[in-house]
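Example record

The entry below shows one chain as it appears in the dataset: sequence first, then structure tokens.
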Amino acid sequence: MGQIIQEYLSGNRIYCCSNCHAHAADHEEVVSKQFHGRYGRAYLFNKVVNVFLGPKEERNLITGLHTVNDIYCICCQQVLGWKYDTAYEQREKYKEGKFIIEKKKMTKENW
């Protein structure tokens, strides 16, 4: 895979990978904390860093059918959540291009 180059966020409140503590998102990028993932509560973000995408797959979620990619930490390869690629219902379109990170898969830094 070669050398891993991480992006370090400079915000006051940062979410990190719970396994290796690589920065994943700034608190300012939180859209909602009212989501649920495979392991419980999850947050919806506009932007995340230090992740790579898995293959696209159709997944039937609580709010209907979506095309998503799992997102993995670039440092430890832990699955952190997923990226919404396509929402098939009009009321769910706001999620497209946004990211879910499961609360269980992240820690907080600088809080």
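Notes for this example: The domain at 14-109 is CATH 2.170.150.20 (Metal Binding Protein, Guanine Nucleotide Exchange Factor; Chain A). The chain has a mean pLDDT of 95.
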